């Protein structure tokens, strides 16, 4: 009885084809994960900024307290801009993570996120006076490139 089997050459060709496909797949996968991390970082930035805008707007609409009842709306909010920053961080602690490190996603930092170890962190700082808050994030390496950062300033209601 004659048995049919694959020859060594046929098996080597199959292994080579699988290796080529795997190499192409790894390169494509790395590109997808980089863009996904950048998109997640941008989404975190928008989430934090929109949260602060919406919370401060509640005072304009007649609420007595905002930020989990820690900021009194009867006082000008911009007087509390510096004290609001830690409250924002506490609110988001455990709720959003840095997509690049898996650590905390919100940081209080008066500086520009221009080090690659700050990638993915939302930086909150006062901007040109107490009534403004600046939100910055580096979403892609290198952080020294201004095109890889988002920089937005919001005005707090008085």
Layout of helices and strands:
Blueprint: H1 8-60, E1 65-66, E2 71-72, H2 81-92, E3 106-108, E4 122-126, E5 132-138, E6 149-155
Parallel strand pairs: 3-4
Antiparallel strand pairs: 1-2, 4-5, 5-6
Task: Give descriptors for this structure.
alpha+beta; about 160 residues; two-stranded antiparallel sheet; elongated; four-stranded mixed beta sheet
If you average the pLDDT, what whole number results? 84
Content-based structural category: alpha+beta
Radius of gyration from CA coordinates: 24 Å
Span of the ends, CA to CA? 94 Å
How are the strands of the largest sheet arranged?
A: 3-4-5-6
Name the helix and strand elements from N-terminus to C-terminus, one letter apiece: HEEHEEEE
Helical run tally: 2
Number of strands: 6
- Low-pLDDT regions: none
What form results from the Cα inertia axes? elongated
State the share of residues found in helices, binned by percent.
40-55%
Strand content: 15-25%
Number of domains: 1
How would a crystallographer describe the biggest sheet? 4 strands, mixed
Q: What would you say this structure looks like, in words?
A:
This protein is α+β, with helices and mostly antiparallel strands and 158 residues long. It has one domain. The chain contains two helices and six strands, in the order αββαββββ. It has helices at 8-60, 81-92, and strands spanning 65-66, 71-72, 106-108, 122-126, 132-138, 149-155. The strands form two sheets. The protein has a four-stranded mixed sheet with strand order 3-4-5-6, with helices on one face. The longest helix has 53 residues, at 8-60. The chain is elongated and about 95 Å long.
């Amino acid at each position: 009885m004659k048995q049919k089997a694959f020859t060594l050459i046929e098996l080597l060709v199959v292994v080579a084809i699988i290796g080529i496909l795997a190499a192409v797949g790894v390169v494509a996968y790395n590109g997808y994960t980089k863009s996904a991390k950048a998109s997640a970082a941008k989404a975190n930035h928008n989430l934090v900024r929109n949260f602060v805008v919406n919370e401060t707007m509640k005072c304009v609409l007649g609420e007595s307290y905002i930020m989990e009842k820690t900021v009194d709306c009867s006082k000008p909010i911009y007087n509390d801009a510096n004290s609001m920053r830690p409250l924002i961080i506490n609110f988001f602690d455990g709720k959003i993570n840095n997509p690049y490190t898996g650590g905390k996603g919100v940081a209080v930092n008066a500086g520009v996120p221009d080090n690659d170890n700050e990638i993915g962190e939302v930086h909150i700082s006062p901007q040109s006076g107490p009534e403004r808050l600046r939100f910055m994030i580096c979403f892609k390496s290198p952080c020294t490139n201004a095109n890889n950062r988002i920089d937005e300033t919001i005005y707090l209601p008085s």
